[in-house]
Every structure is written in C-alpha cells, then in structure tokens.
Amino acid sequence: MRILVIEDEKKVSDFIRKGLEEQAYVVDTANDGNEGERLAGYNEYDTIVLDVLLPKQDGWQTCRNIRQNGVKTPILMLTSLGETEDKVKGLDLGADDYLTKPFAFDEFLARIRALIRRSGSGESTHFKLSDLELDLLERKVIRAGKEIQLTQKEFALLEYMLRNKKKVMTRTQISEHVWGIDFDTGSNVVDSYIKMLRKKIDKDFSPQLIHTIVGVGYVMREEK
User: Fold this and answer.
1) Structural domain boundaries enclosing 26
2) 19 near 3, Cβ under 8 Å?
3) What is the pTM of this model?
C-alpha cells in the first residue's frame, strides 16, 4: 500500500510517515500544494492525505486540481479547521473523508483502511500463490503450513510482489512502491532484499516462486 502525505508541518508529516511505515505502508511526502499535486498526478497511490493550510497552493485548490486532472485516488483531508462548512467544502471539492487535528492515530489508521477498502484497491487482505500465503490483518506469512518471520521491508516487498504476481516488475517499480520515490534506484538494495526474501520463502520449499528476468527485474509465479 502506497500513500501520499501532503503536509507542510514537518513534525506532523514525520509523525504520520513514521506511524504509517510501522504499519508497512510506503509513504511519499510533499510539503506544499504544488508538489503534492504533481506527485498525485505522476504516481499511483492507494490514498492521499491532504492538509488544508499549505504554502504555494492551499488544500482546497490542490484537491480541486487533483480531481480535475482525473486522479480518482481516495483523499483524506486533515486540518485544524473543524467547522461544518469547512468539511462540506472539502467533500464538495472531491475529498472522500475529513479528519480534524488533533486526532488519535488509531482513528486515522481506521479512516485510511476504510478509504482503501471502499476504493477497491485494498479489498483483499489475503494473498496466496501455490502453498505461500500472506495475511495482511494478522501480519503473517505461511508456506507449506510453516510460519515465516519477515522484517517490515521484507513483508512489504512480498506483499507488493504477491499483489502483482505473474507480472514482471522492474527494479525501479519495486523500489518506488516498497521504498518510496526518494530511494536511490542506482543501489543494489532491491537485489539484496530479493536475495534475503528468497532464503526465507524459497530456499527450503518447492516450487521456487521468485524468478529473475535477466536485464529487466523479477516476477513472482509458480513455474509449470
């Protein structure tokens, strides 16, 4: 799951990003409306978290422009403005939900999950390929009846690959969806994590599920 957070208060932005990453979400951030609009139009996200009081371009205009550009990603607006007319304005401009600061992070997460479910992009919480299973709600990975312990990034990598099983994914695609847009695509981190993931879910099992496509990237599938 990939989320864009458009928030100019660094303390708030860092708090949201850290909390989401602890839940294995991949988070991109923008600190003004123009940059947020650009990222929303350029990348694919499962949810956009949008503050109202932003520099360069406020959240109202950013929300309006995102929708006019044809982006249908669910938008959760965050603001200290709690008046009913402000909430109505945000919803009329295309936002899907509205949360007033300060907020409880558990409620924030619940709103994010609800938006993803409603959009259909996060409808499935259970993924399966051959005898490998991943359960998002219980944060479990099981192969051939054996539970496998993964780090946060290994879990996020496996989730992304299972969501795109049978599709060839480039290293750039993987890095952007698992590490975010600021990741150095010239590094060998993706290859290193693929190697570690293979040791845990492929080494002692058959058939092999993670395959290298030379010169391109990787694909997750059960070979016939």
Assistant:
1) 2-119
2) no
3) 0.67
For the chain, give the number of residues.
Answer: 224
Position 26 confidence tier, pLDDT thresholds 50, 70, 90: confident
- The conformational region for residue 111 under phi > 0 = left, psi -120 to 50 = alpha, else beta, is alpha
Task: Spell out where the chain has E strands.
Answer: 2-6, 26-30, 47-51, 75-79, 97-100, 126-129, 132-135, 140-143, 146-147, 169-170, 210-213, 217-220
Could you tell me the two tokens for 29?
């951030």
Does residue 150 contact residue 158 with C-beta atoms inside 8 Å?
Answer: yes
Residue in this structure with the two tokens 């054996």, named with its chain if needed? 146
HEC assignment per residue over 152-213:
HHHHHHHHHHHHCCCCCEEHHHHHHHHCCCCCCCCCCHHHHHHHHHHHHHCCCCCCCCEEEE
CA-closest candidate to residue 47, choices 138, 108, 127, 136? 108
Quote the CA–CA distance of 197 and 185 in Å, as a whole number: 19
Distances (CA, A) of 217 to 106, 155, 210: 37, 19, 11
Give the domain CATH number at 191.
1.10.10.10
Give the pLDDT score at 38.
95
Q: Give the CATH number for residue 47.
A: 3.40.50.2300
Residue ending a domain, choose from 74, 92, 119: 119
pLDDT in tens, 93-105: 889 999 988 888 9
DSSP β-ladder status, 26-30 and 2-6? parallel
